[in-house]
Amino acid sequence: MFLCLETPMTLLEGGKRYRLTARVTFHSKTGLIISAPKDFTTDLTSCHSEGLWSKPAILHDWMYFCGELTRKESDLIFKEAMISVGVGKFQRNKIYYGVRLFGWKAWNDHRRRNNAK
Predict the structure, then answer these.
(1) For every residue of the chain, which 3-state class applies, written as one string?
(2) pTM to 2 decimal places
């Protein structure tokens, strides 16, 4: 369940990334609470479009960025979050399997950046 109804973000110059104007928090059925902080930037599932999946995509980007969970755990919470906001089964599965098949590159890029710090 999300704690805010609106997706608090603004489109950045160039039109490919968004900046959060407030924290986005999700309470998972697993008991985890995932919060993407204000000022975090996201590309919203790499397709740069808004929809019901916007808040779940923000959390997914945050989970990949932080790397505190495994990639699979992050993807499953993403799917759960999409269910919670009413993303239809076909669209949800298309997005979910897209990140399962192709998300490894973003995951690995974030791990390399985080390890270099």
Answers:
(1) CECCCCCCEEECCCCCCEEECCCEEEECCCCCEEEECCCCEECHHHHHCCCCCHHHHHHHHHHHHHCCCCHHHHHHHHHHHHHHCCCCHHHHHHHHHHHHHHCHHHHHHHHHHHHHC
(2) 0.87
